[in-house]
Amino acid sequence: MGRVIAVTNQKGGVGKTTTAINLAASLASHQAATLLVDCDPQSNATSGLGFLRDPDRPNTYKVLMGEITAEQAAQPTEIERLSIIPAHKNLLGANIELVTLDYREYRLRHALEPIRQRHEFIILDCPPALDLLTLNALVAADTVMIPMQAEYFALEGVTELLDTIDRIRVELNPSLAVEGVVLTMFDERTNLAHSVANELRNFFGELMCETPIPRNVRLAEAPSHGKPAIVYDAHSRGAQAYLKLAEEIMARVKKQLATGN
After folding, report:
1. Which site from 118, 146, 162, 191 is most exposed, i.e. has the minimal number of CB atoms within 10 Å?
2. Distance CA 259, CA 255 (A)
3. Do the beta carbons of residue 27 and residue 120 sit within 8 Å?
4. How far apart are CA 243 and CA 27, in angstroms?
């Protein structure tokens, strides 16, 4: 069964979608069949992989509403082994429409179940809010990846997210775990970044990913060209960092499978 990882942080501007796009692309480049599911009405993960707005295209909204299957919605990308279920602006209304539906928190989980065995990884790009869309992603996920900046306000709101994860474990998804916390936009030249990074490592312990993602111009430019960093500039520091992060995640999964934990 594929590992479903929700990339989430309700604090905006922390590199959430950048992480979702480039982690998915990097996993695929390491020969892992990967599906990226854009759960954010802003559709940035969709445009970041070069998909123009198309109201008639199969999308996450139609999957959540039960109009089409996840298999019908999945679209191939220019990266071998990477596919995407694009988002649509109608997801804005899904938070209201889902309220009256049966098993509203389980819609995405049930939709992904038939295709999990076809992918080694399924990456869910969540909205920057703890709403019904994010709740659906967290119920569907095996683990949560939390991107954070190395700044003193980084922990702001993350306690709330961790509390939400605990509540979901109790009520909806007992096996949900934290995959890791990854430092984004990391500027290794500043003492502040290193100081905050050390504090975060002390707070999160082994949950902290070893690979930080540097602040990188090529990484920031890539989405405007509709490409992940490894396609836009594979030799850039940003692209190389995400490749290393993908290796780290794959090694964690392999270790857990070997130990049965």
Report:
1. 191
2. 6
3. yes
4. 7
pLDDT digits (tens, 9 = 90+) for 93-138: 998 999 998 899 999 999 999 999 999 999 999 999 889 999 999 9
Question: Using CA atoms, how far apart are residues 42 and 178, in angstroms rounded to an integer?
Answer: 25
* CA distance readout (Å), 204 to 13, 104, 158, 200: 21, 31, 11, 6
Hunting for tokens 């857990």 — which residue is that?
256
Residue with tokens 């702001």: 156
Q: Which two tokens stand for residue 230?
A: 């490894």
Q: Is the pTM value of this prediction over 0.90?
A: yes
**Max Cα separation, the chain?**
52
Instruction: Sort 113 into a burial class: Cβ within 10 Å, 0-12 / 13-18 / 19+.
Output: middle
